[in-house]
Specification:
By secondary structure, the protein is α+β, with helices and mostly antiparallel strands. It contains 6 helices and 13 strands. Helix 5 crosses helix 6.
């Protein structure tokens, strides 16, 4: 009975035809120190068949890098009597703090819109979670405004053509993290696509963490928020007084 079961498992494994992705990231930890100006991540890897050989059929690669999710409130501005004031607003429960997509070709040439929406293959397909019940058109307007704001802050980006594939085996993509990134765990998802279908996927993680003096200040501001606030006020007053004295002596 056991021999029959092993033989059956062998036939199943032999019949497995989907390839396997073997992804890697140039650095799994990004240290944010004082004066941090950003860094570049290299996401690379290979795609193999179950036997460990190079995958034979042609395929495309899409890489999606997402930062930790956070809540966000977006406000609209409108002109009232010549002055810009806050108007309508909406809250989002879950917004990626960072989002980047790179692909070997334009996504519209790789998959249909439904598949692109399922796997978030682009900034147009980010799955945001607005709070409360709002009008569909209003939700679309606020979502587009949020994506535009994050894009101008260099926190959302897409590079259709940013993945290079060599001999249908190796692939690589470069994604830049700006200096204003949020700390936390980032997920790098890699997808192999053939004939409009995702045939393999794999995930890696990158930890972005503050170290040194930056970490000390961040921890102190969270653990001793009241004392931190008082010290900040005292420091501001002291610097103002010192500046006034210096100007008075000139």
């Amino acid at each position: 009975m056991r021999a029959l079961l092993l033989l059956l498992c062998a036939f199943v494994l032999m019949g497995q035809r989907d390839p396997i992705l073997v992804p890697e990231v140039s650095q799994h930890e990004v240290q944010v120190r004082q004066g941090f100006t950003g860094t570049e991540l290299l996401l690379f890897g290979a795609i193999l068949d179950p036997g460990g050989r190079a995958a034979g059929s042609e395929y495309d690669i899409v890489v999606v890098l997402k930062g930790p999710s956070e809540a966000a409130r977006l406000r609209e501005k409108e002109r009232f009597v010549g002055v810009w004031v806050n108007a309508a607003s909406t809250d989002f429960r879950s917004v990626p703090s960072f989002f980047a997509v790179a692909s070997s070709r334009p996504v519209s040439e790789i998959v249909d819109e439904k598949t692109a929406a399922i796997y978030e293959f682009g900034t147009d397909y980010i799955q945001l979670s607005p709070s409360g019940v709002i009008d569909t058109e209003e939700q679309a307007r606020f979502s587009a405004g949020l994506v535009d704001l994050k894009t101008r802050q260099q926190l959302y980006k897409q590079d259709f053509g940013g993945v290079q594939i060599s001999e249908q085996v190796l692939y690589q993509a470069r994604i830049t993290l700006p200096s204003n990134v949020t700390t936390g765990t980032y997920t790098a998802e890699t997808f192999a696509v053939s004939r409009g279908r995702v045939i393999a996927s794999a995930q890696s993680e990158v930890e972005v963490a503050k170290v040194g003096f930056e970490k000390l200040v961040a921890d102190y501001s969270q653990d001793w928020s009241l004392v931190y606030g008082l010290l900040a006020v005292m420091l501001s007053v002291g610097m103002g007084w010192l500046a006034g004295r210096l100007f008075a002596m000139i």
